[in-house]
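Quick start: what a row looks like.
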Amino acid sequence: MPATVWKGYLSFGLVSFPVRLFSAARPETIHFHMLHNKDLSRIKEVWYCAEENKPVDRSDIVKGYETGKGEYVVVEEEELKKIAPPTATTMEILQFVAGDDVDPIFFESSYYVAPEEAVSKPYALFMAALSDTKHNAIAKMAMHNREHIVLIRPAEGGLLLHTLYYPDELHKANKAQAPKSKYSAQELQMAKTLVEHLTGPFEPSKFHDTYRENVERLIEQKQKGQKITTVKQPRNAPVIDIMEALKRSLKAAPEQKPSRTSPRKKHKAA
C-alpha cells in the first residue's frame, strides 16, 4: 500500500468523513552519487558546527529561526504540533468554483484523495455532486508545516486534490509581455491551419523523457566499454520569411488523427 501523505477529515457543510492523501505523481530522473575521483568511494554529507569547528551528530541538531544576525529562536517539533491549526486534521471546504475557473498556473502538487473504507457513502455523494454540477471544491488544509489552499476535483474513479500557490508566490516580475507586432491576415490563417493540422487528443502515453533515455543509454554504453552515441543538436536560424516558414512547417508536420470516441474528449487522470 502506498505511503499516506496526510490523514484527516474532509468537512462538507455539516458532513465530515475521513480521507487519506496519496501522492499522485513524482518526477522520474537519473540519480547520481557524489564520489571521490581518486578512489570512487562515496562522499558522505557531514553536519558541521562553524563555532566549534567540528562535525556534530544529527541528534544534536535543533531548528532555529534567525531573528537577527547570529541570533536565533529555537523551535521544537512538539511546539509546532501544539500550534498547528484545525486544518492539520480537518480539510475545510471554503467554496465551490466552476471546473475551469482556476488558472493552471496556481497548481503546485497533485494527490489522490482516498476514502476510509468504513465511511465511503459521503465520499461517493460528494464526488457525484461535483461531477453533476461540473464544479470543483476549494478548501484549506495544513500539511508539511504550512497551510495550503487546495482544489478538489472529480476524476475517473475518485477525487484528485491539487495544492495551489498563493498569489504572492507567483513570480509576476518574471512574466513576459507579448510583443506588439503586426502580421497579415494570410499569415494568421496559415498559422491557424497549422494549429488545426497538429490538433489531436491528448494521449500521455505517447510522450517520454528523451533526456533520461539518453542518460540511461550513456551509462549502459560506458559500462560495456562501447562508443558513446552523441546527439546532433539542431541549428535554429531566425525566421526571415514567416509565410514560407509556415508553409514548410505545414508540409512537414504529421497530421494528428482524431480520437475514435470524440475529437474533443479531454484526458482525465485516473
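That is the whole record. Residues 261-270 have pLDDT under 50 and may be disordered. The two ends are 17 Å apart (CA to CA).
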